[in-house]
Amino acid sequence: MVIKSPHLPAPGETILGGTFFMNAGGKGANQAVAAARLGGQVSFIAKVGRDIFGKEAIQLFKKEGIDVAAVLKDKKFPSGIALITVDDKGENCISVASGANAALTPANIKKFKAKIESASILLMQLETPLDTIGFAASHAANHNVKVILNPAPACPLPDELLGKLSIITPNEKEAEMLTGIAVNDASSAEHAANALHKKGVDTVIITMGAKGALLFHEDHFSFIETVKVDAVDTTAAGDVFNGALAVALSGGRPMVDAVRFACKAASISVTRLGAQASAPYIHELE
User: Fold this and answer.
1) What is the pLDDT of residues 84-130, one digit of tens each?
2) In what order do the strands lie in the sheet with 92-97?
3) Is 209 exposed, middle or buried (0-12, 13-18, 19+ CB in 10 A)?
4) Catalytic residues
5) Quick check: pTM over 0.90?
6) Rounded to the nearest 5°, which phi and psi values hold at 283?
7) Cα 205 to Cα 215: distance, rounded to the nearest angstrom
8) Total domain count for the chain?
9) Residue 126, Cβ neighbours under 10 Å: how many?
10) Which residues of the chain fall short of a pLDDT of 70?
11) Residue 211 sits in a domain of what CATH number?
12) Beta strand 46-49 with 71-74: parallel, antiparallel or unpaired?
């Protein structure tokens, strides 16, 4: 649920005159939709509530061509909700009530192990419980499935989980939380990427907003600049980046090309309002 206002409210401040709209979101859902719109064959493992938002979400996933056989309906918790304020510069602040997302358990994942085993890539984020993420990552790694983790929302991660990852894609703040290294330019991003690699992650991609992305892959650093655009709403830009990255890699693109493809997709997304609604289609990138 989004309100676009002239500026983000300070504590205790009420801002009148904003524009309200509702848009389907959730990091995992955003990534799934982005990947599907860019040509990926997507199976989504998730949990929603037995409410109007859950029903609508599943219908939207079906419309995007996503396999929803593993989207579960929780009997106890409502669907996850995010309240978002967006200012005139396109910056946002977000408050999330996790609801059914927080009830996705390792036991739920066990029912869909075959889907993970048959995938080329398992893409995850941190709006579901960390033990569930760890279980899925271990199962994928044991079956030689590439694991991409977008570590958002940011939280400390155990080295055991990091060692199961093929690729990690933090932004600057998330990289700082994971490494203790403040990331503000390419040089500091290299230090943070190297620190994450030493914890066991093969490939590290630090996304840096309008500046682009720092890639550490096969012991080599690359900086991929992004397309310059006028940002309207940065909501879901990271999710679109990750969905696009997964599609590009599953399609056989070299890593640098895949990151460049993901940067372009994210650049398009920030020129539009909304989360899933902002994800581009493959023809727009081509």
Assistant:
1) 898 988 888 888 899 999 999 999 999 999 999 999 999 999 999 99
2) 19-21, 2-4, 81-86, 92-97
3) middle
4) 239
5) yes
6) -65, -25
7) 5
8) 1
9) 18
10) none
11) 3.40.1190.20
12) parallel
Domain that holds residue 9: 2-285
Tokens of 225: 């600049």
What single-letter amino acid sits at 14?
T
Strand partners, 142: none
pLDDT at 225: 93
Backbone angles phi, psi at 149, to 5 degrees: -120, 125
- N-to-C CA span, the chain: 31
Cα-Cα-Cα-Cα torsion 135, 141, 142, 145, nearest 10 degrees, comes to 120
Backbone angles phi, psi at 86, to 5 degrees: -120, 135
**What is the chain's percent helix, strand, coil content, to nearest 5?**
40, 20, 40
- The answer to whether 94 and 71 have CB atoms below 8 angstroms apart is no
Strands (E), the chain: 2-4, 19-21, 46-49, 71-74, 81-86, 92-97, 121-125, 146-150, 167-168, 203-207, 213-217, 220-224
**Which residue is associated with the tokens 């419309």?**
63
pLDDT at 84: 85
**Residues 239/31, Cβ–Cβ less than 8 Å:** yes
Please identify which residue in the block is written with the tokens 């649920």.
1
Non-local (6+) Cβ contacts of 167 within 8 A are 146, 147, 148, 149, 201, 202, 203, 204, 205, 245
